[in-house]
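Deliverable D2.4 — example input (structure tokens):
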């Protein structure tokens, strides 16, 4: 994964999918044994509306978090609006953060910054191992 100004996209997925109760995001499907080359097709399977909705929500949250990381400061209202708009643009309902007892900044933004630091300070050509433990639904 590239070293860039912010955490790479797939590592943002790690932050989001390990903090939120989503079972049909990119990493969640891989963790359950899905073949990587077919994951994108699986998450867009119209026969499984729940999987498709959650996959869109996960991607929208990742995109919203990336925008916050690029801005250099966390604005919760802008994050929620961005994630919601990305879902609505794909004709899916936004993820309902209000049902969780969660400090969004701490659970997502601060964890992404900490992982970015860990990623950025890892020596080139080294390995960074993370345990992916999804949140219970």
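Example output (designed residues):
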């Amino acid at each position: 994964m590239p070293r860039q100004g912010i955490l790479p996209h797939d590592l943002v997925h790690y932050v989001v999918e390990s903090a939120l109760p989503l079972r049909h995001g990119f990493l969640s499907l891989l963790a359950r044994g899905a073949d990587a080359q077919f994951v994108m097709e699986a998450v867009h399977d119209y026969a499984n509306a729940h999987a498709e909705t959650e996959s869109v929500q996960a991607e929208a949250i990742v995109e919203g978090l990336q925008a916050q990381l690029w801005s250099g400061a966390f604005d919760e209202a802008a994050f929620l609006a961005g994630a919601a708009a990305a879902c609505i643009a794909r004709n899916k309902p936004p993820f309902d953060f209000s049902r969780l007892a969660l400090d969004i900044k701490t659970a997502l933004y601060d964890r992404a910054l900490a992982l970015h630091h860990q990623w950025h300070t890892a020596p080139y050509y080294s390995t960074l191992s993370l345990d992916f433990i999804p949140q219970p639904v």
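The mean pLDDT is 87.
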